[in-house]
Amino acid sequence: MQALNANTLRGNWATLLSTWDEHEQLDTTRLEAQIDALIAMRVDGIYSHGTAGEFHAQTEAEFDAVAALLSQKCEQAGMPYQIGVSHMSAQISLGRLQRVRHSPGAAGLPGAVQVILPDWVAVSELEAVDFMQRMAEAADGIPLVLYNPPHAKRVWAPEAIGRLAAKVPGLIGLKTAAGDDAWFDAMRRHLPHLSVFVPGHHLARGIQRGARGAYSNVACLNPAAAQRWTDQMQTDLPAALELESRLARFVENHIAPFITRDGYCNGACDRLMALIGGWADVGQTMRWPYRSIPSEQAERLRPILADLVPEFATI
Prior knowledge:
By secondary structure, this protein is of the alpha/beta class. The protein has helices at residues 28-40, 60-77, 90-102, 125-139, 158-167, 181-190, 203-208, 217-221, 223-235, 237-255, 257-260, 266-277, 295-308; strands spanning 11-15, 45-48, 81-84, 112-115, 144-148, 171-176, 195-197, 213-215. Helix 2 (60-77) links the parallel strand 2 (45-48) and strand 3.
């Protein structure tokens, strides 16, 4: 796959959700069907081993199997893809990257790899630079995207990300929760050479302010609808912003409380949205010790989605 850059990294990227059988073993048959569904929906790209992909809960053999399957499928279809090599351990993350880069059985190389900063002991800025430089060296031409969500040990301001990017030329993109108008002003000043990705349910607002795309939570809900909405932003931004107001209301009123009120993790909510959408058989199961939201909640929320955001109720 052709390497991405800050100009070509954009749009609606759909996550690959992990699939477990009744014994919490990786179900590659359902995983393969999920990739096929995303390719058929012609999303802008697919990425593996994000939060919904449970990169933190996979063994190294499972990581390799998922990465190889995604690579094979996407290379055959000409679908852009990225592989998350993230791990809380810098050493394990580096090993994942080295295997992605040098595996003799790989179908090809991803357009980029996603990384988090080491996450048990928060790194200093100097340590972050050292980590990212070594990862860029190991990537050997594969671009890097930094994943810095709100639950990271250290959430970096645009100024700090800008200093980091200046010392790591291989860094082309950033996934972030973004912020208010002042945050976007700082983003435009300090990150002009990075492709900044924002939360999926705020993508239209983000595009309006200079963001490039989303590693999209709402693509979990309905990848095809998320793609149609992303395309609409290029032709009718006011209508896309109006849709966003309803979509964000659904997420904030009916999905986010599972985190803020009930204590489920973010990945469980991504899985719930996939159950609501019903576009692939991902199952309700999160891997131990993380709790799974019962599938009955998806049945309850499906008509609410259809009433509030009918555009996302149809595949």
